Amino acid sequence: MICAGVDVGSRMLKVVLVDAESLAVVASGVVDEGIDQDALATQLVERLAVQAGLRRDDVHAVVATGYGRKLIGMADATITEVTCQAWGIRHRVPEARTIIDIGGQDSKLVRLKPDGAVADFVMNDRCAAGTGRFLEVLATRLGVKLTCLGSLVAQSRKPATISNMCVVFAETEIIGLLASGTLPEDIVAGVQASVATRVAAMAGRHLTEPIIFTGGVALVPGMEAAVHSALDRPVLVAPQPQMTCALGAAILAAERLRGSRTPAC
Amino acid sequence: MSQSARRITLDQWDQRYAELRAAGLSEPSYGGPLRRHVHDGDLRLLKLRTDDSAAALRLWNFLLSEEDRLHQARANGKKIVGTMKDLGTVPVMAYSLDNTIAFYPDGAWWLPCVMENQTRLLEIADSLGIDESFCPVRAMLGAFVSQSHFPIPDMLTCSVGATCDDVAAIAQRLAHLGFPILWWEVPHRRRPDPGEESIELPGGFRAPASQVAFVRSELDRVREAMETCAGQRLTDERLSAGIAQANRVRRLLDELRGLAYTARPCPLPGLEMLIAEMLAIHFCSDQDEAIHVLDELLAEVKRRTSAGIGVLASDAVRVFWVNPVADLRVMNLLEDVGGRVCGSEYLFCHALDLIPEELPPMEALARMALADPMVGSPVDRAERICRDARRFGAEAVVISRIPGASHCALEGAVIGDLVRTRLGMPAVEIEVPPITDSIEPALRTRLEALLETVIDGRRTT
Amino acid sequence: MKTIAYSSPFVPAEWIAAHGMSPSWLQPRPAAGRPLVGASRGVCPYAGALVDAVLSGVEAAGAVMTTACDQMRYAAAIMEHRGQLPVFLMNVPSTWETAAARGLYRDELRRLGRFLVRLGGKEPSPEELAEVMLEGWLGQSERSEHAPVRRVGQAQRSPTKTGRIMVGGTALRLSHPTTPPPPQQKLVPLALVGGPLVEKDSDLFEMVERAGGCVVLDATEGGERTLPAPFDPERARSDPLDELVNAYFGAIPDVFRRPNGRLYEWLGERIAARGVRGILFRRYLWCDLWHAELPRLRQWSPVPVLDFDAVGEEDGATSRTVGRLEAFLEMLR
Predict the structure, then answer these.
(1) Measuring CA to CA, which residue among B340, B290, B349 is closest to residue B59?
(2) Which of C69, C285, C295 has its CB closest to that of B129?
(3) 3-state secondary structure (DSSP) of residue B110
(4) CB-facing half-sphere around the CA of A171: CA atoms within 13 A
(5) pLDDT at site A129
(6) What is the ipTM of this complex?
(7) CA angle C257-C65-C87, nearest 5°?
(8) Which chain B residues are closer than 8 Å to A200 by Cβ?
(9) How many Å from the N-terminal Cα to the C-terminal Cα in chain B?
């Protein structure tokens, strides 16, 4: 039997199919977000099932997560990203104790108990300044792709200081820095440091390692180092960081299928 | 003596210092070239332009050596009283004792600017949950926790009530972290009701006598605690002498402001005036030396004024500046675009008024504390700003917001209203974070627009 | 009878009522159209909404504000500067451990009394004041042991046509719940901690229940936390004004008090007694006093804490709040 996890994010819709017994990943995929998330999710699940040599009927349980989770008609349950990330990371990195998840529009810090259950979490879902959005604004202004930020930041010798809390005004700062001759690599370093610092502020003083960095922003070159520097602690990037939330949702679907209690609303 | 005056960079100071030495410069023990402070981490000096006089050199060296002085005082067995959110009251009491000095922890707010964030004080504050939605005074929290700047005071006081939520919140956090604090209350100064016994305060406000009595009783508590800390009695005699000494500083500043803000051309840059005024609050932990520093500065200003020497163009637009700036560089920026500071209200103008010496000392201090414009209505503060702006011949007003400071959010509306309606002069609000490098173009545009408005107005009058 | 609007639990409703006026808890919501002040950066949304509400027009003879925080202090100044409504700014001391602070609060009550008289009220005799305190100012003397723990004022909400004033002070004296009703089965018992709430925040309680929780301790301003202590009948008869001071200034724990440890004592007792399993911490963006307590609360709290920062009634708040609530309840279950 197969279970599906659907993560309806702000930029991408992710699906992971797992074997309900072994929890092995059978297939996974990503599509850009659109207007009809329900249809997108349905199409992606079907496509992945076919690719894996399965039929849609083989998918026996679906859990949806992410900001658009309640729009997914095929979902048997909706569970928040906090819980799904915890389950997904726990599956990949069983010893994880802290999760830093930076997505396109929000960022979270989740503390896990020794048994992997969520002990506490902090979210920034109001301010774009500590999220991938800020990096997108930066990349647009510099006329580069997000994937190129890493090679740029590697050349930085003196990161610029970005002072504004608000990414809208911070964009003005970037323009100002460029106009004053600040090197693009220093601006990139400054912005990445600013995003990482905002996340570190959520963390407070007490963090338990291992710290796992996940979410789409973990894929952006340079961000791992920036978060490491801001926290002054080693940070591990989760395997396939974009997919860990959907993976957690799929695992939770499998748990539900087995009859285990899960924290679903 | 130089026949000219300039604002110079740190690189230019290397040569200037050599010239001054060659001409027989006499310096106190904390003297020396400015560049040494950069080696100690005060990186902002690399971006500032400072006055080129020996007097300004002494002022800067005095300011930037405060931490050394505090550590030396501790080593010499002096008691250090940390006076949080105290713009010139409790320090006067502390300096009245001969084994005690006062220290203004809130002053750490300039460390992120001066050291260009190398201290990570703001990051420490972030990690303790005091993020950038608070005033940059949160650097103080970082400094207490890191203990890498000033020695922890022997006694900590904090004024609360109608003072400042940012400091009250941060101080409560400090108390929770294990730093005992003596809280003393400042009531919201209100206008006396009809028929209510009232008292005129230094600076011209009136307050109910009952409020003055209340503050006096609060300061009595502070006095008792200070006596216990110092192991000395803080007698009225000592206090009177302390008040007289504080007034020496205030008289010097009054004369300095009167000259520097009205003379044409401008004899001293706004940056040095801002730092000089700050000495009124806490004397940079050495009251006697603060007097020498101001003496020298005043002498230089007098010399320049009588010789017609200025640091800026004669037609620089005269700007009244409201609120201190978290980034010192902004004082340079105003002058770079053609303005000059012709008057100021840096949140503590009452600390520039003389403390009445004919009154019993605790009564005098109580009246002084209640005269703080910030503890009353912003309308009162705005009225004083209007009065002083008119007195100093201002042509425009800059209201500098401190990001996160709880009073700045709403007071600008009131101050701006009154300035525009009563004075009929243009006013602009700007927000100045600890490092403004990346927003300098935006700040420059606002200031330039303000000055252009004034210059245009000059043409038509 | 003239109405006096007030927005702080440190303003005794009994005092206003004893002067022959109708106290009315002012729970703001933003004025229609462009906010006059409320949306400015750095302005506490609650203080801004209060200013907007007063400047837009409230149906009252006067308003009473307090000095509990800078934002309210400055808000009162703007109301006076730009508005027509008589505003009384009551100085509530931050320090509370000294006789002088207590005396200041008592003097402020008297001064408030003079303000009320100027607006048409009548100074009460000590007996009249005691009667209002002991009998209830709407003539109700029943005390319910199991009163709902919802928002103070909700029970008797009757908005005027402008919707800006709620005549709800009755609930202030209705109850001192010592044993709240047991939550429905499977609902996670929670505490709601924070400052004042705007009108729309009454939806929060339903949102909590839909997410699987139940607020068994309302420690917000205007909730149980800021109920005055029960009046001692003997003290109330011998010196009613002093008993008002005892019950309000002497008893209400709050974040602005210096020191503010009593807030934690108060919370600790009730969290333990009611089996609270999680704290919902509700604060406004730009509210320094509550914001600064968050890390201390997290460190102190025996149960997990969920932080809600709000800017008032913005549309996006609901989905954000629901998302956080659901994640929190998932964690607790």
Answers:
(1) B290
(2) C295
(3) helix
(4) 12
(5) 72
(6) 0.92
(7) 155
(8) 123, 126-127
(9) 39
Query: What backbone phi and psi angles, to 5 degrees, belong to A27?
Result: -165, 155
The count of residues in chain C is 333
Which of C44, C101, C296 comes nearest B185 by C-beta?
C101
Nearest-angstrom CA–CA distance, A258 and B52: 80
3-state secondary structure of C153: coil
Residues B238, B246: Cα–Cα separation, whole Å: 12
Q: Do C91 and B188 touch (CB under 8 A)?
A: yes
Q: Report the distance separating Cα C209 and Cα C214, nearest Å.
A: 5
Give the pLDDT confidence of B325-379 residue by residue, as tens digits.
999 999 999 999 999 999 999 998 888 899 999 999 999 999 999 999 999 999 9
Helices C317-332 and C203-211: crossing angle in degrees, nearest 10, is 40
CB of B132 within 8 Å of a chain A CB? The answer is yes
Environment class of C161 (CB within 10 Å of its CB; exposed 0-12, middle 13-18, buried 19+): exposed
Q: How far is A263 from chain C (nearest CA, A)?
A: 5
Tell if the CB–CB gap between C333 and A263 is shorter than 8 Å.
yes
**Backbone torsions φ then ψ of B349, nearest 5 degrees:** -65, -25
Spatial CA neighbour of C27 closest among C43, C12, C6, C42: C6
**pLDDT digits 0-9 by tens, B24-74:** 999 999 999 999 999 999 999 999 999 999 999 999 999 999 999 999 999
CA neighbours closer than 13 Å in the CB half-sphere of residue B382: 25
Q: Which one, of B278, B230, B280, lies nearest residue B252 by Cα?
A: B280
User: Within an 8 Å CB–CB cutoff, is residue C75 touching chain B?
Assistant: yes
Q: How many CA atoms lie within 13 A of A246 on its CB side?
A: 31
| C-alpha–C-alpha distance, residues A152 and A185, integer Å | 5
- Could you give phi then psi for residue B134, rounded to 5 degrees? -100, 165
Say how far residue B11 (Cα) sits from the centre of its chain: 27
pTM attached to this predicted model: 0.86
Burial class of residue B461 in the structure, from the number of CB atoms within 10 Å of its CB (0-12 exposed, 13-18 middle, 19+ buried) = exposed
Sheet containing A25-32, strands listed edge to edge, beginning at the edge strand earlier in sequence: A25-32, A12-19, A2-8, A59-66, A77-78
Which residues fall within 8 angstroms of residue C280, CB to CB, at 6 or more apart?
C190, C191, C192, C193, C208, C213, C215, C306, C308, C325, C328
Q: Write out C254-289 in H/E/C secondary structure.
A: CCCCECCHHHHHHHHHHHHHCCCCEEEEEEECCCHH
C-alpha atoms less than 13 angstroms from C-alpha of A36 in its C-beta half-sphere: 5
